[in-house]
Amino acid sequence: MEVILAKSAGFCFGVRRAMDKVYERVGTGEQIYMFGSIIHNEEVVKDLEKRGVKVLHSPEELSLLQEGVVVIRSHGVSKDIYSMIDENGLTCVDATCPFVRKIHKIVEDESEKGAYIVIMGNANHPEVEGIKGWSKTPTFVIESAEEARNFKVPQNQKVCIVSQTTFNYNKFQELVEIFSKKGYDINVVNTICNATEERQKEAAEIARQVDTMIVIGSTHSSNTQKLYEICKAECADTHYIQTLEDLYLETEATKSIRCVGITAGASTPNNIIEEVQKYVRIDF
Length: 284
Fold this sequence. Notes:
4-stranded parallel beta sheet, 284 residues, alpha/beta, Rossmann fold, Cobalt-precorrin-4 Transmethylase, domain 1, 12 strands, 3 domains, single chain
């Protein structure tokens, strides 16, 4: 059986950087806190908790701290969280992905000029929640064509459009096209991470070639969900798993499979990818 593993599968630059920052602090004797999950991978978070790292789930929990180290998650946070850490005299380790920090700067600068901010992305995703917290003007989150068509602001209002770093590139183009027909004074900044775009394109190419496609990553991972949607559109027999334990294909189904594709989200550790790849090669 042929197995095609995506070259882009696994940790991206931003995730690896965040992981390095938090693990550098483990074992130093300091009490370490993560503001939210450092990355969207349950296995990684469980490992850090075993090592004594605690997760803060809200600003209210953060406000009660008087000492310790607070690691900012890779998805970033609002400006208010940085202020709270500073006011409480806590040590801040900023593991925000540099590409996300770039969006914070764009949103802060453009909103200071009076532009309304439109974020193409998922309103409930922590990255988007963090981006919103850097705007000084009204902020809107758009995820669908219907929302884009229904969007209305005063005609003379300047609008700056940015994107969640893991948003679907083709959908971003579709939504921008809808906005371009509205006649607003629009500044469009494509802030989709290059690694995300390449990962999505590679996943689609592999999915077109194989009989079965396996997408590995957390169910809470936005970029993995996008990969699954893209692969499913190209290969009907696409499976979304978090670990090897989730992978179960009936023996009869595997008899007709000659080629399997594997990709993984940006927060998926290499050891999990290797386990799945080994299982597919030996036991499928």
